[in-house]
TrEMBL record:
Upper taxonomic lineage: Bacteria, Pseudomonadati, Pseudomonadota, Alphaproteobacteria, Hyphomicrobiales
Organism: Chelatococcus daeguensis
Residue ranges of domain Thiamine pyrophosphate enzyme central in the record: 207-334
Protein name per the record: Acetolactate synthase
GO BP, one annotated term: isoleucine biosynthetic process
Residues annotated as signal peptide: none
């Protein structure tokens, strides 16, 4: 019988499941995996590419970014409990954003002797846990352990199908070393998936009710955080809100749902629009507004639409929900548009509403951009956002922002052209995410913009090493204010005029002295520049774009910005 080691069988099966990359960080649990990889290669079995990723957080971020671009779940393979714990923040981020990832890590050998694969070095005793999976269980939709080598195909099929079912998310499989060392039949490993992911379809009655409410609304509002589905539904969504004169607010948007230039895009502040809205469509938002600050009209009707409208995995979340429409936005958005197609319309009222929105959105954009252009005090995040939006206009580019450039002041128009860190806020996300995106789409311009704190959370030496090793010409823009500004702002928000806010230097927020990040990047032979003069910003961005597009080499701008 033709057999192979279970360690190698994993890769064979992942290939059959459509996995292109295994982002791996190996250890002493990996001999059967590495031997299996070499064995499969020797037998000319098609495999996903296994990549050496020198930090687990970067591996998770890359799988996340690859999915955002390709829509296909990838695999991450880590070292026992210690590697897994480094990857846990990435799992939390992926879970929060419904990003499917096949996460695996080895189990240190449980046998001490007399079995192939048994313990050899002291870490095998040191890394044993009773419940290793507990490190990521809350972030995973499904978890299990490989008990027998012949289970590789079945368990990976199950993991993959569950990860890709609505609502999507990461799954985890632990891989004991002794089991990985055993042989398993090769037959069937290259066949098609044995399980189909479940796509949830919207309930017809809920959809009809949502359509009826929106068509009859006087002041309809959409709040959208995680985009509007796929390329086709993104385009359809933009046309639909214009056709019906519906305001779209992008409060804390992590994906672009509509062009920032669209006449119905009223900006990021839901406050004034929520105060007057009689029907609100919450389109895939974890937290659509700030309950203590923004008030709904008492008679407003609220529709929640998304893969999991109640976000059932989140313990507390009580935004009012009168109608719930479940499904991926690529399905529910066109379905809602169709459901409204035949409903009565008050053309005069819609036209008036549309004109008012166009005026309001134009005024919001103009005010934000005029303010951003004011550089009398120095460079601000808003100014860099303005300059980057202009520089990228008309180019096929995606921006991954993490306390970096700001949507709206930053002009973004196309589907997938904007992403922000997940609401789980596990920092160090945008740099590896941009690397994963660049891997998925080598010809796209991938820009990671982030705070200095976020850059350091990303393990920048690791990320620059990956960019060089894999020839990924990402552009990194660090908005360096030499502090954790968001933490300072949070203290000042909760204790305005308090001791901390009045202190010369607020405790636990400064990042001084700031390292010379251009040298961190240069260590991996990136093109890098520091920018301190506002007048230099546009030319510096243009020069960096030339480097990434023409030399196809990674670039970094360390832009010194004022605290917000
Ligand atoms: C892994 C992780 N650790 C800590 C935090 C808490 N945190 C939230 S915002 C922030 C500061 C971010 O600083 P920076 O990226 O420089 O952006 P700034 O606010 O200064 O513009 C920190 C430390 C977090 N979100 N994630
Ligand atoms: Mg900072």
């Amino acid at each position: 019988m033709d057999t192979m080691t279970a360690g190698g069988a994993i890769f064979t099966r992942l290939k059959a499941l459509g996995v292109d990359y295994v982002f791996a960080n190996s250890g002493t649990d990996f001999p059967p995996v590495i031997e299996g990889l070499a064995e499969a290669a020797a037998k000319e079995i098609a495999l996903p590419r296994a990549l050496v990723i020198p930090h687990e957080h970067a591996a998770m971020g890359m799988a996340h970014g690859y999915y955002l671009m390709s829509g296909r779940s990838q695999a991450v393979m880590l070292h026992t409990n210690v590697g897994l714990s480094n990857g846990a923040t990435g799992a939390i981020n992926a879970a929060c954003e419904h990003v499917p990832i096949l996460l695996m890590s080895g189990r240190t050998p449980v046998t001490e002797e007399k079995r192939f694969g048994a313990r050899t070095v002291p870490i095998a005793w040191g890394q044993e846990m009773r419940d290793q999976t507990a490190l990521v269980r809350e972030a995973c939709k499904w978890d299990y352990e490989l008990k027998f080598p012949e289970q590789v195909g079945g368990l990976l099929d199950r993991a993959w199908a569950i990860a890709n079912s609505t609502p999507k998310g990461p799954v985890y499989l632990s891989l004991p070393r002794e089991t990985l060392c055993e042989a398993t039949p090769r037959a069937g490993l290259e066949g098609p998936p044995s399980l189909s992911p479940v796509a949830v379809a919207p309930d017809a009655a809920a959809l009809a009710e949502a359509a009826r409410l929106l068509a009859g609304a006087e002041r309809p509002l959409v709040i959208a955080q995680r985009g509007a589905g796929d390329a086709a539904s993104f385009t359809a969504f933009g046309r639909w809100v214009e056709a019906w004169g519906i305001a779209v607010c992008s409060w804390w948007a992590t994906h672009l749902s509509i062009s920032t230039e669209h006449p119905c895009h009223v900006g990021a502040d839901p406050g004034p629009w929520l105060a007057e809205a009689d029907v609100v469509l919450v389109l895939d938002c974890l937290a659509p507004w700030w309950p203590d600050r923004h008030a709904l009209r008492p008679d407003a009707r609220v529709i929640h639409m998304g893969p999991d409208p109640l976000f059932s995995r989140f313990p507390v979340r009580n935004f009012r929900c009168d109608v719930a429409v479940a499904g991926e936005s690529a399905v529910t958005v066109p379905a809602l548009i169709d459901a409204m197609a035949g409903l009565p319309r008050d053309e005069a009222a819609i036209a008036a509403r549309r004109a008012r929105l166009a005026e309001g959105s134009e005024a919001t954009r103009r005010a934000a951009r005029e303010k951003a252009a004011d550089v009398r005090r120095g460079i601000t995040k808003a100014y860099v956002s303005l300059c980057l939006g202009e520089a990228l206009d008309g180019l096929e580019a995606s921006v991954f922002s993490e306390l970096g450039t700001q949507l709206g002041t930053l002009k973004r128009s196309e589907y997938r052209s904007w992403f922000q860190e997940p609401h789980s806020g596990g920092l160090g996300w945008s740099f590896p995410c941009a690397l994963g995106a660049q891997l998925a789409e080598p010809d796209r311009i991938c820009v990671a913009t982030m705070g200095d704190g976020s850059y350091m959370f990303a393990n920048p030496t690791v990320c620059h090493q990956i960019a060089e090793a894999l020839a990924l010409p990402v552009l990194v823009i660090v908005l360096n204010n030499e502090e954790w500004g968001a933490v300072r702002a949070s203290v000042a928000g909760l204790y305005p005029g308090g001791h901390a806010a009045r202190a010369n230097e607020m405790p636990l927020t400064a990042l001084k002295p700031s390292p010379d990040f251009t040298q961190t990047a240069a260590a991996s032979r990136a093109w890098s520049r520091r920018v301190t003069d506002p007048a230099e910003v546009p030319a510096a961005i243009a020069a960096a774009l030339t480097v990434v597009c023409e030399e196809r080499r990674q670039a970094l701008l360390d832009i010194r910005v004022l605290p917000d």
